[in-house]
Amino acid sequence: MQQRQRLVLLIFSLFLVFQTSNGHNITRLLAKHPSLSTFNHYLTLTHLAPEINSRTTITVLAVDNAAMSSLLSKNPSIFTMKNILSLHVLLDYFGAKKLHQITNGTALAATMFQATGVAPGSSGFVNITDLKGGKVGFGADDNGGSLDSLFVKSVEELPYNISVIQISKALPSAVAEAPTPGPSEMNITGIMSAHGCKVFADTLLASPEAMGTYEDNVNGGLTVFCPLDDAFKAFLPKFKNLTASGKESFLEFFGVPVYQSLSMLKSNNGLMNTLATDGASKFDFTVQNDGEDVTLKTKINTVKITGTLIDEQPVAIYTIDKVLMPRELFKAAPTPAPAPAPVEAADAPKASKSKSKSKSAPEPASDSPADSPDPADQVADDNAGVSFKGGRFVAVGLSFLLLFLLL
Ligand SMILES: *[C@@H]1O[C@H](CO)[C@@H](O)[C@H](O)[C@H]1NC(C)=O
Ligand SMILES: *[C@@H]1O[C@H](CO)[C@@H](O)[C@H](O)[C@H]1NC(C)=O
Ligand SMILES: *[C@@H]1O[C@H](CO)[C@@H](O)[C@H](O)[C@H]1NC(C)=O
Ligand SMILES: *[C@@H]1O[C@H](CO)[C@@H](O)[C@H](O)[C@H]1NC(C)=O
Ligand SMILES: *[C@@H]1O[C@H](CO)[C@@H](O)[C@H](O)[C@H]1NC(C)=O
Ligand SMILES: *[C@@H]1O[C@H](CO)[C@@H](O)[C@H](O)[C@H]1NC(C)=O
């Protein structure tokens, strides 16, 4: 029975993965307005569009093609462009009506730029002020009080999910416009070392193969989940016990070959491949929201994202509170009543491409999930005991599958 429920839950969570739409699609909303097409194009190029789609209660300050041209004439890199445009996404809902009726006539709004952690001090905030004659002025808060971007018109309003407003010109901000280093100039181990993941970074630097895999992926998109020092230090004896290829796969397991912002992680729950994924060696984990937290989970253990070290497309580095253990290399502490493992979600959406680099895959310690008892299941799926009404018919179909597996 428990087995059946677990399978039902597995299938159910796959349904959830496919149904992540939040109702609005900024690309589609802006497509109706040709004068905003350059702005729209850059929301896509900078990967801000999915972040905007994953949020509600936001306001997008769009500028027309002429204003975009003058911004682009300064030749900002795509990474700088992302900072500039993320300053134009306010984390609050301002319809045209609310804009003209701001309490006390002025307000500061946090932006997506502020939320990335890249913006120091108040530079990620936008000042909105009702001016004389019914005008509304906007200015980056680090801009010396100048409010010379003016409200033009309301473009789209889906209360209270998303409001798109046109303003007369891009918000000038020295901080957002500052050149950002290209990803290949980024010293990812340096960033990790400086922010609580020194042991992991040093271990990575000591493995040229794993380090090379990380470097190969920096330009195309890379997300790293680095275990904090205390956790990784305590784990070192287990790490040293691994074979050479086990060590390499283990280190690569903490990198994902696509860029994932925190909001993308929050809205794209499901299986995620890693830099260690190579054909039959899955080395994947499940991303799952737990309230405001984002957890990463294997059959062995679950860890939590505790911080963002950097989030500058195409690279994001997060800290995790514990060392996530791939089931390909570790066995869970045995618990009573081993049961056959459920079918692995073989056709679950793949969050990332497998790395093309081919290397000899380490032999998994023992468990091919389809045909051997896997006590780890029992540990990992504690919460599967919830009853699930209406899942019966699925369960009936699945019990055939189970029967088949048991044979
Ligand atoms: C949003 O709309 C664009 C253009 O219609 C489409 O290409 C894109 O797939 C849509 N995104 C989502 C998440 O539906
Ligand atoms: C408006 O101004 C009053 C008086 O200065 C102040 O007490 C109040 O907190 C302000 N409200 C907002 C929303 O800023
Ligand atoms: C916004 O800027 C104006 C002009 O510099 C200033 O008077 C006002 O206090 C600012 N508003 C807030 C909420 O900081
Ligand atoms: C706002 O988003 C929710 C889903 O998050 C959706 O059900 C609702 O219809 C949306 N409202 C509008 C006005 O689009
Ligand atoms: C990256 O940072 C580390 C630690 O700060 C340093 O030892 C290393 O030399 C740096 N690498 C490059 C290429 O700058
Ligand atoms: C290392 O491996 C040996 C032999 O398999 C085992 O007895 C020992 O407990 C392992 N040490 C750790 C820290 O896992």
From TrEMBL:
SMART domains: FAS1
InterPro entries assigned to the protein according to its UniProt record, in alphabetical order: FAS1_dom_sf, FAS1_domain, Plant_FLA
Compositional bias annotation for Low complexity: 342-351, 359-377
Localization, UniProt: Cell membrane
Keyword Signal: yes
Domain FAS1: from-to ranges: 23-171, 184-324
Membrane topology designation: Lipid-anchor; GPI-anchor
GO BP annotation list: root development; shoot system development
Chain residue ranges for the region called Disordered: 335-383
Signal peptide: 1-23
Record key words, sorted: Cell membrane, Glycoprotein, GPI-anchor, Lipoprotein, Membrane, Proteoglycan, Repeat, Signal
Claim: Transmembrane helix is one of the keywords in the record: no
GO cellular component terms listed in the entry, alphabetical order: plasma membrane; side of membrane
PANTHER family xrefs: FASCICLIN-LIKE ARABINOGALACTAN PROTEIN, FASCICLIN-LIKE ARABINOGALACTAN PROTEIN 1
Function of the molecule: May be a cell surface adhesion protein.
Family under the similarity heading: Belongs to the fasciclin-like AGP family.
Name of this chain's protein: FASCICLIN-like arabinogalactan 1
Organism listed in the record: Hibiscus trionum
